[in-house]
Amino acid sequence: MSHVWTNLIHNSIKFTRHRGKITIRLQQIDDLASITISDNGIGISETDQFHIFERFYKADLARERTKSGSGLGLSIVKKIIEMHEGTISVKSELDKGTTFTILLPIS
User: Fold this and answer.
1) Structural domains counted in the chain
2) How large is the angle between the packed helices 73-83 and 2-14, nearest 10 degrees?
3) What is the pLDDT of residues 25-64, one digit of tens each?
4) The model scores a pTM over 0.90
5) By the 8 A CB rule, do 77 and 4 touch?
């Protein structure tokens, strides 16, 4: 799970402007742990949101913003979360930020 947190937080830092804001929230909802990682960065287009968990996919803004990255990070994150019987979702708006929500069973 450390790879999940490292990747998501690193992406938030990478795509949030100087003096931006990143928020990490953990709460219990019934028998689930809900973890949200939010930023007020560059955001992800609605079209790109449908593909960001695919292997090798890079959103156009991400390609312009950085030269590093293989496009594998979020697909690996999703696989790890699914192996722990959890889910991950994204909500984002261009120039307003992104929120990833992870739900994991508490056992």
Assistant:
1) 1
2) 150
3) 999 999 999 999 999 999 999 988 888 887 766 665 554 5
4) no
5) yes
Domain CATH for 53: 3.30.565.10
Contacts of residue 106, defined as CB under 8 A and 6 or more positions apart, other chains included, come to 28, 31, 32, 33
Task: Tell me how far CA of residue 97 lies from CA of 10, 17, 30, 31, 101, in angstroms.
Answer: 14, 10, 28, 28, 13
Q: Identify the DSSP state of 95.
A: T
Q: Where are the alpha helices (DSSP H) in 17-72?
A: 46-49, 60-65
Phi, psi of 80 (to 5 degrees): -60, -45
Residue 22, beta-bridge partner list: 39
77: which 2 tokens?
Answer: 């994150």
